[in-house]
Structure prediction request, 473 residues.
Amino acid sequence: MAENEPEAVVKVGRTSVVKPAIQTPTQTMFLSNLDFCWLPFNNVQRLFFYTQSPLNDYSSLIQGMRESLSSILVYFYPLAGRLKKGESGRMEVDCNDEGVEFMEASINIPFQDLEKDGFRRKPFFPKLVHEVNLSEDENYSRPLLLIQITEFEGGGICIGTTLHHVIADGNSFWHFMTSWAECSRGLPLAKPPQHSRTVFKRDDKSPLSISYKVHEIISQGITGAKIFKFVPDNPQSDHIEICGSDNVERPNEGLQKWVDPKRKTQVIYSTFCFTEEIIQDLKQRSGASTSFVAVAAQFWRCVMRAREVPQEEAVYFLFAADCRGRVKPPLLPTYFGNCLSLGLVQTTAYTLINTHISFAADIIQQAITSCTSEEQINYLIDWAESPDRNFITLVRDAGWKYGTNAVSSPRFPLYETDYGWGKPLDVQTATMNEIGVMFMSCAKDGGKSIFVSTCLPQHQMDVLHHLLSVSEE
Prediction:
C-alpha cells in the first residue's frame, strides 16, 4: 500500500436473509460423489465491480437486487437450503428455503482509484466477500451462498459472492449469476436449471474398488511423462504404480496447503493477456487443437522455469474438465451441480523446460482425453464412494510439490452479468494464494483473447514477464 493511500476499512451495515419469493419443493436433495469430491475445498469467491447508475440511488439498487435474488431462487432453490447429514450419515441438501445471506457494506476507498489503476489486485479485495471459517462445523452449517454488496466512495459497487463448491461447479455458478442478472433486468429465465443429481446414484450395483495410479506415457518419442488414471484394483499389474504410497504427510497438513495457505513468502499478482494472435502462434508451434491447451502448455513451462525448479524434481499440471456431455446418458448444459473430472500430468522439470512446447501440449491433451472418457468418469464416481476421498487428498497423495493448477475457464461468461446498470468493469477471484496458479478468464470485449492471472514472489514474477513476453493488464 502506498504511503498516501488510506487503510481500507470495510464497514458492515445490514445483514439479512433473502428467501425464495414463493415456497419451493420441501425435500432433501441427493449429493453425488462428484459433489463430495469438492466438500472440503475452499469456497468459490468472485468479485464483480460496477459503476453505479446515476438513475438509481444506492437504496433502490439494493432493493432491486434483493427482489431479483428472491425471484431467481425459486428456480435455483437448492442454494437457499442447508447441508445436513441424512439418516445414513451421508451429507445431503435440505431444501428448506432458509435462504441466502445478504450483507450490505461500505468501504472508504474511492472507486475512481480502482478504475485508474485498471482494477489491479489490492490487499483489501478479500474483505469484499464474506470471511468464511473453513473448519468443518462452520463451513458445513452456513448458507450455501452468501452475497456481499460493498459501496465505494464516488458511486461504484462490488458484488462479492461466496459459494460452497459442494453445491455447484463453475458452469452452474455462472448459470446462476447470468440468470440472476436476467431476472434483475426484468427478462424471463432463458435456461431453467436441471436438478437431477440422482443420475449419479449407484443403487443398481456395488462400487468397484478403485485406485488412482500413475501411467507412464511416451510423447513424440520422449519418455518420462506420466498421467494419472482411475483404475480397478489389480495387485498383479506391474506397469503402473499407485500414487502416494510413500507419502507420509498428515491429511490436515495437506488440506491446509490447498484451502487456506499460510505462506510467509511475499507474493505479487499479475494478469497476462494472451491475444488472439499470440494464441494462434502458440497453437501452430505446439500443435495444440485448442486455445486452452496451447496457453496452458506455454504458461506451465514458463512458470516452472521462473520458479527455478530443480531439474530432477517432478512438476505437475492440474485441471478440472466439464463432463456434462460425456456421461451416459449425457446431461444438459443446464445441469445444476458438480460434473467435473480431474486431469493430472507429471514430468520432470528438466524434460518440461528443455523439450519443445509440443511435448507439454501433447501430454496435457492426452490427460484431457483420458479424464473425460466415460470409463474414467465412472471409475471416479466409484473411487469417491469412500467418505475420506476427495480431490484434495487425491492431489496430495500424487506427491504434488511443484505444479500449475489451472482454475476457472475462458469460456465462462464473466461479463454477461448485467443487472440493469451495465456490464461489470472487472471480474476477479477474491483470493489467490497458490503459488504459480493459472486463473483463466475471458476478454471483456467478448474477443478471443485469454487472460491469465497468477501470483509469485517478485523476482520470479520478473522472470515470468520476460519469458511470456505478452502484454500485462
Remarks:
- Confidence is low (pLDDT under 50) at residues 235-263.
- The first strand starts at residue 10 and ends at 18.
